[in-house]
């Protein structure tokens, strides 16, 4: 299992206690994937783990909107963010919903046959476009999309690209079998709000979430993720925020030039900014330049989370502007 983790050494899930053990137990029951590495990698910070899980559970897994539709949106987000691990995960989960042909079209990089699914995939790739779902389902779809803008960045920064051992996910049969093994869990109706008892922090709920558990979970995650700014100097934290605020939410960060801080001089700012704008470009050298004593795994996941939440908030701002234009 440790080969999955690029830079951290999480404690074995079987040894977990407290909130971490509680998250793992709920994750196994409600998500169907025991000890999912997407979440294990965050276990060095229980509040960050709980917040990330809660946002995903309350938006993607619970609620009334179509699970297939939300998985298509999550796949679109993951494609836009160049996160092959997460694209595979969502194709497997589409197999679990029974939408086998749709899963494989997305896996091949093709457009869905259903026009509604095409619109959802396109919106996942660019949330600045018109929303292809009814207003009452907006919290679930928006929460799902923003959850995976955050999770994609954690995964691309801290995990390898292979979801299954040896890259087995490249085989259609393996994807299908993996999905079918999750079918019963995916098709269960979950009670909204059951993850909120796991949260250790609070934060203001965003307007798009209305009065839903999704908003409570998102506010908690936002508060926790921003704690990572404390690992940087005020100047470096400001540089990250300013760069992300000026970003269009889509264009990749240049590998060199004025836009990217020097690795030797400002390694923390560089790492957080890459996590925000191009996490798939983080290298061993980038991490090694910053991850020295007294910094630990706990520090690394918080620094990456800070960059990720800055990106999420920038994309959220684009979404808010688009919604305002639609209702003008």
Characterize the structure shown:
The chain has 328 residues and is mostly helical. It is 58% helix and 0% strand. The protein is built from 15 helices and no strands. It has helices spanning 18-30, 37-40, 46-61, 67-80, 84-97, 100-107, 115-125, 138-158, 172-180, 183-186, 213-226, 234-246, 267-277, 284-290, 297-326. The protein is globular and about 50 Å long.
What can be said about this structure in brief?
58% of the residues lie in helices and 0% in strands. It has helices at 18-30, 37-40, 46-61, 67-80, 84-97, 100-107, 115-125, 138-158, 172-180, 183-186, 213-226, 234-246, 267-277, 284-290, 297-326.
Provide the low-confidence segments as ranges: none
Give Rg in angstroms.
18 Å
* Secondary-structure class: mainly alpha
User: What is the straight-line distance between the termini?
Assistant: 51 Å
General shape: globular
* Strands, total number: 0
Largest sheet report: none
What is the helix tally? 15
- The oligomeric state is single chain
Portion of residues in beta strands equals under 5%
| Approximate helicity band | 55-70%
| SSE arrangement, N to C | HHHHHHHHHHHHHHH
Mean pLDDT rating: 92
